[in-house]
Amino acid sequence: MIVVFQSINPSFLSLQNISNTLAFTVELGLIALAMTLLMTSGEFDLSVGSVFGFSAVLMWTLFNAEIMPLGLSFLVAILVAAAIGFFNGIFVTQLKIPSFLVTLGMLLVVRGTALFITDGFPQRTWNATGSWLAELLVGDFYIGSFRLYMSLVWFILAIVVLGYILTQSRVGNWIQASGGNPNAAAARGVQVSRVKIGLFMLSSVMAALAGIISSIRTSSANPNSGTGYELEVIAMVVIGGTALMGGRGTIIGTVIGIFILRLMRNGIIMIGVPGLAYNIFIGAIILGMMALHSWLERRHKAGT
Fold it and tell me: What does the pLDDT look like over 123-163, one tens digit per residue?
């Protein structure tokens, strides 16, 4: 893919384009990393896109209205996101409602709340320029002439931490057992409900963090931002090799899936394909991966 795009447009691998691509990539990437753990446990979260937009709106509304300082507004937004994830988890684990339906309903509630708070208009963020929080989350730095953002550091840290949790810790075993065979996991003492509730909370918190980072970088908190992100994130995770029905997941695979889709979006625009055609590629990739997963499952069950 990289070779094709570079051969058509030599600017594809320019330092400026790579820098811009990384800035966009890490925001969706943060959500995809958390979604990997959640899908490994056998659940989905369709509300991440709305939490992405709502959390930034909430933080900047509290700050711009001078209700509380920026740092405290950030903390409140993260805590509210955690509460959203908690309620998702409770509905799924205690009321036994499929996560697809629960998080679809939460998507509408959260998006509607963001639109109601703002009357549908973006919130300004530029009066926070130079604040410690903005510098901590999105401050830029240079390696020679190559511009990078602090968000990339947080993305790499999330890869290391969540990768370790999933593959090297007892919690990772609990996550995979909860998705592979929840009844057997419960019989062996795994607190399946607690694991899933915790993962729903992690998913919402990471979506909130990504939305806040995006709002600082773009100097705007739009209540409609993040629309459609949930499906793109799921595509990234599926491309990375995480099993749709749970039980198997890989952070490294998700990272590869993240870069495949973000480079594809950037590349098709740079070679002159209309940006709206990107959804065609996303849909085709999802269908192709579903077919591949189905084929691999049949081979696995057949012992070949």
Answer: 666 566 568 888 888 888 888 778 888 999 999 999 999 99
- Cα angle 224-221-67, degrees, rounded to a multiple of 5: 125
Segment 159-178, tens digit of pLDDT:
999 999 999 999 999 999 99
Residue 127 has a CB neighbour count (10 Å cut-off) of: 12
Sign of the dihedral through C-alpha 164, 165, 170, 174:
negative
Q: Give residue 35's pLDDT.
A: 96
Does the pLDDT of residue 78 top 80, yes or no?
A: yes
Alpha carbons within 13 angstroms on the beta-carbon side of residue 164 total: 5
Q: What is the mean pLDDT of residues 90-108?
A: 94
User: What does the chain look like in DSSP terms, one character per residue?
Assistant: -HHHHHHH-GGGGSHHHHHHHHHHHHHHHHHHHHHHHHHHTT---TTHHHHHHHHHHHHHHHHHTTSS-HHHHHHHHHHHHHHHHHHHHHHHHTS---HHHHHHHHHHHHHHHHHHHHTTPPEE-GGGTT-HHHHHHH-EEEETTEEEEHHHHHHHHHHHHHHHHHHHSHHHHHHHHHHH-HHHHHHTT--HHHHHHHHHHHHHHHHHHHHHHHHHHHTEE-TTTTTTHHHHHHHHHHHTT--TTSS---HHHHHHHHHHHHHHHHHHHHTT--GGGHHHHHHHHHHHHHHHHHHHHHHHHHT-
Distance CA 72, CA 187 (A): 42
What is the reported pTM? 0.90
The Cα-based distances of 165 to 158, 159, 161, 225, 278 in angstroms read 10, 10, 6, 30, 33
